[in-house]
Design a protein that fits this description.
single chain, 325 residues, alpha/beta, Rossmann fold, 2 domains, seven-stranded mixed β-sheet, 10 helices, 14 strands
């Protein structure tokens, strides 16, 4: 069934903010209303979640309707969006990205919340523990205590001798944790890892100027909903400045980055539907342990490597789950 979509408008800070409203007028008795709120742009990840619901037998318009909200990287919009979902009395809220989850946590302690594409929920203060989250929150976590070191290892191996930098969003709660972890690893090797902070898309050009000034040869894009919709732009800037780019989601290499290692966000989003299904069938969110599925993939874009005149080690290529040629 085609998605039913309407729009309403919020006035905030003197600006008119368009927010999608899906299917509210069409809701009938026995039809579940699912809220979905994300820090980045709408699209692939929501589509994968919706597909996961279909796989479980839910028919949109018949069994379930969706209220979707997307901040497009402007996290200041999230509190109002979360409050609006609560006002609409949705049955479950899926919170994609840590900033979205924190906004929902502040907005409600009653509506069940399912985490998706969220970093460490314990470090972020979303739950007391992974095994016993308590309250109204459960879901999936991207957290992996060893992954930061792996990103640094890959960055070092893909172009030995080149200086490594980081691209990070200071408004992303998990960014400083990743920065500290990577810089700690680098410090033990006597290396310095500069960080270019980007809090809005308009700052990307300036960030690359900063990285170039530091003579960065390879940089790692740390996880953030701000960056997800702009990976092609980041990949183009990397080529322009002759830098090797390392992504932290397995799909980033498909969008032009040189190499990516991490969770497959598409598969991760689809798996979120399993938690929503359990809650709709009567499970209490706080009693469902938070899962850390290790759907880790290494992808290498050899087209980008050729454009950078980089020879990727054969051993690294042999380890890749996907090679883009």
């Amino acid at each position: 069934m085609a998605e039913i979509e309407r729009r309403h408008f919020l006035v905030a800070a003197g600006a008119l903010l368009a927010v999608p409203r899906l299917g509210l007028a069409q809701r009938r008795a026995g039809v579940w209303l699912i809220g979905y709120i994300g820090g980045g742009a709408p699209g692939t990840y929501f589509d994968e979640f919706r597909e996961g619901m279909r796989d479980l037998g839910y028919q949109e318009g018949k069994d379930v309707l969706f209220e979707r909200r997307s901040a497009y990287g402007d996290f200041t919009r999230l509190p109002a969006m979360a409050a609006d979902l609560v006002k609409r009395k949705v049955d479950v809220i899926v919170a994609a990205t840590t900033p979205a989850a924190l906004a929902v946590q502040r907005a409600t302690s009653a509506i069940p919340v399912v985490l998706s594409l969220v970093g460490d929920p314990v470090v972020s203060g979303l739950v007391a523990s992974l095994g016993r989250p308590g309250g109204n929150i459960t879901g999936l976590s991207l957290a992996n205590t060893d992954i930061s070191a792996k990103w640094f290892e890959l960055a070092s191996g893909v172009s030995p001798g080149r200086k490594i930098g980081l691209l990070a969003n200071p408004k992303q709660p998990t960014s400083q944790w990743y920065v500290r972890d990577i810089q700690s690893v680098a410090q033990k090797l006597g290396m310095e890892v500069p960080v270019a902070y980007v809090s809005t898309v308009n700052e990307l050009e300036g960030a690359f100027t900063s990285l170039n000034r530091e003579r960065i040869g390879t940089f790692i894009v740390l996880p953030s909903g701000l960056f997800d919709p702009h990976i092609p732009q980041i990949a183009r800037l990397a080529l322009q400045y002759r830098m090797a780019s390392i992504g932290t989601s397995a799909v980033y290499a498909e969008r032009g980055m040189l190499l990516s290692y991490g969770q497959n966000y598409n598969a991760f989003s689809r798996k979120t539907a399993i938690y929503v299904d359990k809650i709709l069938k009567g499970a209490k969110a706080g009693e469902l342990p938070i899962e850390q599925p290790m759907i880790l993939e290494l992808a290498i874009n050899l087209v980008t490597a050729r454009q950078l005149d980089l020879a990727i080690p054969k051993e690294l290529i042999s380890r890749a789950d996907r090679v883009i040629e």
